[in-house]
Each structure stands twice: as structure tokens, then as C-alpha cells.
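Reviewer 2 asked us to include a model.

Predict the structure of this chain.
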Amino acid sequence: MTYRFYQNIPNRNRVSGFVIFLVFVLISIQGLAQEEIRYYLYGKISPDLGNLRNTRAYIYQDNQIVDTLKISSSGKYEYECDFNHNYLIRFESTDFVSFQMRLNANVPEKVMKRNSKFPPFQFDPLLFKKFPSMDYTIFDGPIVTIAYNERIDHFEYDYDFYDDFVAQTKKENSKAQKLAEKNSQSNEEELAKEKSYQRAIENADAQFDQKNYPKAKSFYEQALIFKPDENYPKEKLSQIEGIFAEEQRKLDALKELDKQYNDLIAEADNFYKQKSWSQAKAKYQESLTIKPKEEYPRYKIEDIETVVVLIEKTEKYEAAIKLADEQFTAIDYTTAKQNYTKASEIKPQEAYPKKKIADIERLVKEQATAEAQAKALDQNYQAAIAKADQQFSAKIYPEAKTSYQTASKIKPVEDYPKEQISKIEQILADLA
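Predicted model (C-alpha cells):
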């Protein structure tokens, strides 16, 4: 079983190695017993003054109460939450202000697939003693929101805000305690509202300067609870609404670009499936004008260019082979060889043009041999005829007959030596 290393938790949330070890062992055992993955939250509730009694924690899941924990005098609590839900936990104790915290247990699916084991998260709430002069309206909502931060791959909350909040509330509560003990002025309620207003404004301005506009808005709204007629928080809220509107406009523009890009890709993919290469390439190129950094259309354009080159090469190859075959059939071996050579250069891996070139070279060689043999035969025949004619003219008939017979053997289809032999035989018969 793999967990994220707990040292990623900020110092204020680290617990002793032994406690972490025990918690990890418990979670590991539970992990072996069941497939369900849950998130473990624990901590210790402390009072700013006095002792806690009748302490309970009310657990809300997605705005529905699902559990109630009775907290012992030690203040320790623990709870296992299901992922992909929103929780609100309200801690209550007699004579203390209730404390609410929110847990957003939503984690991106890709993160859960990569590693769904998160280390336990410790949060130690501080409960404040109630005093009449203190305005605790701020506690009507969650003070802390714990949520997953993808940048650090862990859950966190605004530690600085909470530390400042605790420090300032302690300070203010201490003053309220002193005011209660001294039974101070009758305008205590208005003073408390003024302090709460100033605190809300200070927190709001700080969040605004950090461009954390949702939190700033919440604090400005809290300030208006204390002083509804003040213009400053109203002006800041109007400014924040303008920022939100501009952000929404940009988001809508991005969505429209996404739609245009996706539509072009769909058209391009359809042309690609139909092997309409030029139309597909044009659509992929158009999509890059909307999202120049996208890799997918670049890959498809390269693929199309490779396919088109292959098609053109195949067409040239087939044309060269067709022409060469026609010339081969017409016994135009020289031109046929040139086109077979051209086809082989286009597709060197093809065996057919190489075989035809070898056939042509063999046939040309055989033709040359046959022509040489025919020439030699003709020379021998002509020599025999010339000798026979010379002997015939000299009336040396027996030798002439022999020479004509030799010529007839060289070229049996020739009539001339046969006719001459017949003449000699007639002459010899007349002489007898």
C-alpha cells in the first residue's frame, strides 16, 4: 500500500512519528479488509480559556447531517470521510462559541487513479469562551476550508489566515474578557461591532491585495453585517463583481474557442476517415490557427503528408511499370529497361522491375548470340556458294556438286544450291 509522504504536510500539522505509524498501520489494515478508500481527519479541540464540557462535533455531508461525535474531556476527535463529498463539521461546547470548518473532499479523478492513498490530516480547532461584549457573527460560517491542492498533491487550508485569525481573536477575546470582568461601558456592543467591522475590513483588504477575491468578498460581506450603511465595503464588492464578470467573459471566450477547435477537429477527422486528404489537412491547419500549441493536428498533418507522398510514389511506380510492360510486349527492350529502372528507383524494395530488367538483359544477350550465329552461318554459306559457282564455271562438275551440297547443308531452305545440283546431274547424265 502506497501513501504520500507525510512530511509534505506543513510543520503545524505534523504529528509524532509514532502516531503517524499507528495511523498508517490502522489504515493499511482497513485497506486490506475493504476496497473503499476514505480520508482520515483527526485532531484535538482546545479551549482558549477554562475547560471544555459537553463537547460535541456535528458532521454534515453535502448539507445533510450524517453523524454526531461526543468528544471526551481530552478533546481528541477523529473521523473518516468519503471522497468526492463536501463536509461541514461544527464543534460545540457549553459556554464556548461554536466553531465550524469545511472539508472539500473532492479530488480529481486522474489523481485518484494515480494514487488514492492520502495521509491523515490533522486539524486542532481552538474554541473561544463567550463574552457578552464580543461579536461572534464571524463564527456563523466556516472559519477554515480544507481542500485538495493539486500543486502540492495534498490537502491544505489557509494556514496564515487561520493563524492570524486565531491570534487576533485571542487578542480580542482577551479584551472582551477584561471588559466583562470590569463590567465596562454600556456601548460595548457597538464597540464590538466596530472591532469586528475593522477586523473584517482588514482581512478583506489583505485578501483583495493577494487577488483572493472570493475570500475578500466574504470578508467585505461580513463587514456589511456589522455596518450596513458603510460605502467602502459596498464599493469593494462592486469592484469584485466587475472582476468576476471579466473572468467569466474570458472563460466564455475560451469555451467558444474550444468549441470552434473541437468542431474543426471533428470535420478533419471525418475527412481523414474518408481519405479526403486535402480537405482533412486544410481543417487540421485551420484548427492550429485557434490552438497553435496543440500536438494532435500537427501529428495528423504529418501523417497526411506521408500518406500523400506514398500515394504519389505508388502512382508514379504503377505508371512506369505499365508503360514498361507494354514496351516489353512490343519487344522494345531498350525503352522497357529504362522504365523498369525508373520504377525500381521509385520503389527499390519491389522485386518485379528488377526481375524484368534481368529478363531483358538475358533476352538481349540471347538475341545478340543468335544474330552472331546467323551471321557466321551466312558467311559459311556464301563462301560455299562462291566456291561451287567458281567450280561450276570451270566445268569441274563433281567438285562443284560437292560444294553445292555443302552449301545446302548449311542452309537447307535455300533453293539455289539444289537447283545447281540438279543442273550438274543433268549435265553429267548427258555426257555419259
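The mean pLDDT is 88. Residues 284 and 299 are 10 Å apart (CA to CA). We have added this to the supplementary material.
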